[in-house]
Write a structure and sequence with these properties.
Helices cover 62% and strands 14% of the residues. The strands form 3 sheets. Strands 1, 4, 6, 7, 8, 10, 12 and 13 form an 8-stranded antiparallel sheet that branches. A 3-stranded antiparallel sheet has the order 5-11-9, with no helix packed on it. It has a two-stranded antiparallel ribbon with strand order 2-3.
């Protein structure tokens, strides 16, 4: 009768466990998806940040180029102003030269008028002036000397007029050519500088256009990054909620395991009591009773046979220092992996670097524990399944982040959670 009641009670306790474990497995799957989304968002944020850094570098170079163009434009503008000042001065010189030219032209006109008057006088006299007749017409020697002097004066005057006329005409031509050449050179220089300035301004506008495009892209990247950060924060929030739900589900499973363990202990005590009473009633010796096997003092047994190859704690396997939350036991592929204690399967499947993994939830002396069995080649249990200590749960393998066939074994005081470090050294609980 007692056995029947115990069986009914155990079934009542076990009925919701599979559903709860399935829910836990689903939550853990969602947590993995949230973690993956968070990692992808973090990668996207990193890419956006890198792109923004590249753009900032490009923008800095463009701004430096624009500043250099501004400096060159300032220098060119200063040169244009200087040439313009020279042009203005040359024009002032031209204005002064024009007055000199006008005076020179006036002198030339006056001489031409004088020469024309001489020509008309000669024409009226019936021909050319015969200076010999003038000299021969002298009344006496004194008169001859006077006439000779006058004739020389007239001849020299005519010669001087002609020389001055020729010199002034030549000077006029030279001045005009010099001024026109100088002005043309300055105008050409100014035109070249204006062209250079326009070219620099065009380059500046082009660079400014590039800068504006980069600023616009930078603004867009900043907006996209902000949105990604928001999404990541939301993903983190979702992940933390899932972690809480997972912890609650594991606590439920642990409570189920505690009740089952309490019922098992109660049943075992009742069986022992019944057996003892039977022994006393039949006056049999105590040696005829074989007690059930006891578990280790810690409540756990070694989950696999093999070589103890990696300890608990900090290590470096090529990717930099990392904290190893368990121990490694190496053996051939397929080696039996056993449950380290009575409990429930809270997860069974593939999980990132763990590869194929089984996670069990236990209640040891009223305290929730979790054990992890990673890198399995095969899995023989499913989520929600109740397991007994020493029961095969899978075979040793090399899946996930692994460098050879081995079992990665963890013990957690409290519910398992990948984001928390409540792992303890398994060497303190099992013999390795």
């Amino acid at each position: 009768m007692l056995s029947g009641i115990s069986t009914v009670l155990a079934l009542a306790i076990l009925m919701p466990s599979a559903a709860n474990a399935d829910k836990l497995s689903e939550l853990e799957q969602k947590q993995q998806e949230a973690q993956q989304q968070k990692n992808e968002l973090a990668s996207d944020i990193s890419k956006k940040t890198e792109k923004m850094s590249e753009n900032a570098s490009k923008l800095e170079k463009l701004i430096a180029k624009i500043e250099d163009l501004n400096r060159k434009m300032d220098e060119t503008t200063a040169k244009i102003d200087s040439v313009q000042a020279d042009i203005d001065y040359t024009k002032t010189e031209i204005d002064g030269l024009k007055k000199s030219i006008e005076e020179l032209e006036l002198k030339i006109e006056e001489r031409e008028a004088l020469l024309e008057e001489r020509a008309r006088a000669i024409q009226k006299s019936g021909g050319s002036v015969d200076y010999v007749d003038v000299l021969l017409g002298a009344n006496n020697f004194v008169d001859f000397i006077d006439r000779f002097s006058a004739v020389n004066t007239l001849i020299e005057a005519d010669r001087e007029i002609m020389r001055e006329q020729a010199a002034d005409e030549k000077l006029l031509a030279v001045h005009q050519a010099q001024v026109e050449t100088k002005l043309a050179e300055q105008e050409q220089r100014r035109a070249e500088l204006v062209g250079l300035n326009d070219k620099l301004n065009g380059q500046k506008e082009e660079q400014a256009g590039f800068a504006e495009e980069l600023k616009a892209e930078q603004k867009l990247l900043a907006k996209e990054k902000s949105e990604l950060v928001q999404q990541r924060n939301e993903a983190i929030d979702v992940s933390s909620k899932l972690e809480k739900q997972i912890e609650e589900e594991q606590n439920r499973l642990a409570e189920l395991a505690r009740k089952v363990e309490a019922e098992r202990q109660r049943k075992l005590a009742a069986e022992r009591k019944a057996a003892a009473e039977k022994v006393r009633a039949s006056n049999s010796s105590a040696s005829s009773y074989t007690a059930p096997a006891k578990v280790s003092s810690s409540g756990f047994v070694t989950p696999a046979s093999g070589r103890y190859t990696s300890t608990f704690g900090w290590r470096n396997i090529g990717d930099g220092p990392e904290f190893h939350q368990g121990v490694d036991i190496a053996n051939s592929v397929g080696t039996n992996i056993k449950a380290a204690a009575n409990g429930y399967v809270s997860f069974s499947g593939s999980m990132g670097g763990y590869g194929n993994v089984v996670i069990l939830t236990h209640s040891i002396n009223g305290q929730t524990h979790a054990t992890v069995y990673a890198h399995l080649n095969s899995i023989d249990v499913s989520a929600g399944q109740q397991v007994s200590q020493g029961q095969r749960i899978g075979g040793m393998g090399n899946t996930g982040r692994s460098t050879g066939s081995h079992l990665h074994f963890e013990i957690h005081v409290g519910p398992w959670n990948g984001a928390r470090t409540n792992a303890v050294n398994p060497a303190s609980f099992v013999s390795l």
